[in-house]
Fold these 2 entries.
Entry 1:
Amino acid sequence: MTRHFNLFMVPALAVLAFVFAIPILLLFAVSFWSVKNFRLQPDFSFAAWQRFLTVYGDLTLYTLLVGLLVGLLCTALGFVFAYAARFKAGRFGDLLLVATLITLFGGYLVKIYAWKSILGADGLLNQALMWLGLTDEPLAFLIYSRGAVVVALVHFLLPFAILPIYASLRNVSEATIEAARDLGASGAQVITRIVIPQTLPGLFSAFAFCFLLAAGDYVTPMLLGGTSGSMLGQFVLLEFSTNFNWPAGSALSFGLLFACLVLIAALAALGGRMMRRPAGAVS
Amino acid sequence: MIWRVILGLFLLFMLGPIALVVVFSFGANALIGFPMGGFTLDWYGKLVADTGFHSAFWTSLSAAFSTAILATLTGMLAAIGLMKVTPGATRAVLAALALPVLLPPLVVAIAIVVLFVRGLGLGLGLPVVVLGHILVAQPFVILIVMARLARFDQATVDAARDLGATRLAAFRLVTLPQIASALVGAALVSAAISLDDFIIASFTIGGGNTISTFVWGKMRTTLDPSINAIATILLVLTVGLSALALKVSKYKGQV
């Protein structure tokens, strides 16, 4: 009675095909088209890809670095929070999870706007610093900087990291931890040798998701990044709207996507290797 | 003790900025800062009088409502279908359906625009927004409904069929009542996803506004204190819907 397909899946898959698969394939095809006199023409040209590599190479690298940093911060912080919620919070654990689920829907633009109000020249943080007498005039570098973008992105993506990590922490039994403790393992050893190895899949999916969303974001750098904090997503938008260069915008999108996937695949391979190697030391 | 401090700092970081916006939406001062001035409902009053906000509000609500109904339908059917196929096929189909959520929404949104404007020569507008939101919401519906179906006793359906119920009658009388709470939860989550979305809506709406594109317009131009009020309304809607969804469906975030 088990099969590979049935008719119930058709509506959902139809939406996937019509609103995602076909559009994405068309967008990819567009990256080889050309623009003449502001008119888009089907073509087979590598001009857009050349533009991506020559003009946007450095920016792509920087965007990947921001994604990497945000992904790592979210994964590390998400682990600490999920670990505390799972093992240290007792009966408040569920409440913390609900708080996380609620911040997940806290509004994407609302969060960015909140950081703008906190970090701005007449924002809350500057007011507090001046009131404390730590500075005489507002610190201008708090907003419109790379740091502001990273802080806001971590704030936005942290719930996305906490949930998969918490889900995998649920499978770590307290008995194993007790056993390790009884056999003389220190707190740090319990975490590095018992907890982390068992939650690696959760940690990895948390990182991958945060990395992808951070590297692909354009609203946060637009509002908080200023000129120094610009990311590639903004230029995808620029090429599509202001420059009316759809092929370039498309090449930028896919260039970023491929770069992200290569990086994730490399990290996955590295992680797989690390998991296999010192396993003997644990058991 | 140390863990309490750590968790407290986390909650401050996670909830603090959001709480700030809510608190200052009731403050008399135009900017976020202390002292915040007296308590006022002026910013909300301004919104009530703003026709631009009215149309954005109704557009968002109709997008959220349509997304909730349609994504729950496609997602529910897919979840039922997925329970009947091999585990390998389930994993493959789920991965495919989740892909739009994993890619940057900017890329997905632009791809939709390219197909509808250039590929099909159709215009943009609310129906396109809803299609985009269904695409993003349906994997979440599937997860929620499948979590419920996994605990579901198939024997009750078999019993109904043995007693002469048609497939449809067995579904309507036996399956549906048992998964109803999960469906309501899934519909609420879909509505919250639709309301919260900015990127897909901003590309596919064409003319007009949703609440989030309306906020965006204000954020880009002036420092308008009514942003705090709109943000609070949006927050109450999305957080309210998702909290209600959690309660109704008893979903605990299994992914």
Entry 2:
Amino acid sequence: MDFASFLIQTLNSLQYGLLLFLVASGLTLVFGIMGIINLAHGSFYMIGAYLAFVLASLTGNLFAAIALGIPLALLFGAFLEWALFSHLYKRDHLEQVLLTYGLILIFEEVRSLLVGDEVHGVDIPAVFSASIQLSEVLSYPVYRLVISAVCIVLAVALYFVIQRTRLGMMIRAGNHDRVMVEALGININMIYRVVFALGVALAALAGMLAAPISSVFPNMGSHVLIISFVIVVIGGIGSVWGALVAALVIGFADTFGKVLVPELSGMVVYLVMAAVLLWRPEGIFKKG
Amino acid sequence: MKFDTSMAFKLLALVGLACVPLAGADFYTELIAKTLVMAIFAMSLDLLVGFTGLVSFGHAAYFGVAAYAVALLSPKYEAASLWYVLPASVGLAALAALVVGIFVLRTKGIYFIMVTLAFAQMFFYVFHDTPLGGGSDGLYLNVKPTAEIAGFMPFDLDNPTHLYYFILAMLVLVYLFLARVLQSPFGRVLVGIKSNEHRMQSLGYVTFRYKLAAFALAGGLGGVAGFLYSVVFGFVTPELMSWHQSGNVLLMVILGGMGNLVGAVAGAFAFVAMQEVFSMWTKHWQLAMGLLIVAAVLFMPGGLSAVPGRIKRALQGGSAND
């Protein structure tokens, strides 16, 4: 592998890992704070991608689609929390698995009824459609760099919100001991709703950003969901920092796995998970 | 074994199932044969979910391993011996579950659900991506295994009626085997782990070993179902290991009420019946299924198995939620 293709694979790994982080960060917070296993989280990624497709064809512009899509996703998340997930907090995991499995079936069928089962493409915005020339034959699309940049900005913002704001303090406290937080007079239900809506919006945004490079197709959420589970398992439930590190590890393992051992590419990610399970069954960053 | 009403009911159901091919409606005989295969699969998962308290969301992996093993171990244009491929494919499924169990049983709760799902997905990719499994098209089993031993042919799996009774016999065998296992000291330990693992540990049981044995056993029995599936349909695809398959079998177990072997069989029948009825109405039958599941969780805490208790309490005039 020469330097230019090594650079390309490194950038691809970063971009893939950071995109996965957007999905996994919401998932790990919902696990950590609400104690809920949400199989439907991958569907939010799928919904985001379809939102980008539908809104971009209506407005003719991916930026407008994202600007409209994020508030829609936030509202949708808050609604779901109010209507369904708020009833699940005291139920056992099996019932959570059931309800969210049912939700996946509903989301996929509604998607099929509204948009159909065809594969759709979404255009890369004209501003970012250029490529950077790395050697005579190899070049790197600007849009992928933009995705990485947006994800890094969001990761920093998420870090800032969680570590430096009053809301973040409540989220961290809720992650640690939700009964105590309630006893101190903080409205834990409000925190649940905010965190859930935020998780939905982050996953949907990941789907919107990915739509131009991965195209939009049925069941696109299930692969992302399972990879996000792997990330949460590796990073440790409830740890956003762990999710970031694990997402990057998976991004590199998957991308370089595809290049170096193509026959085993699908399995590399799970082998990494198996190794981590042997070493630290509760994830690398699980707090005691 | 004492003879009581529940025993009489089971025998009656068995006689009913045994009469199915006599009706001569080939479509329904085939449909019920497929349902019996799923019923075996559901019973194997019930050993984990219902009796040991391990919610595995990746049980389809072992079903798929055995199904692929049949196709891979059979010669291309000749019949393999049933007495070789059946134990071999079931053994491979149990071995796969044993190896996965060593990893997944280090985790608990939500982690366990996620990790079993992730490992099942790994098996999906093993058969999807490597030349071993024939890619997304899967493999064909051109010739069904033969039951011939030393020139004597007790039954012929190419004959649909023989195949039906073979599946029914396997169902009864798996049921009797599991019922016996659950009555044994080993089975009592599993039930003890479900209700309180820490107490079992403090009683001196190394619970990890018992859970691992249960996981491998359930994988092997799931492999019996996978073997039968392969023989019935004559082809295998990676979809057999998809997480929808794992989700569906979990639904069957829950529909029938966990921790009840006959319930798991009933759950498989209820699931297939729902699938058939909904898909008669609409191509989007999964929407109806999804809505039903969500409504069931929201409005029936404790699942179907809690319904008789709730009705009983309601009749006695108490509140349904106490």
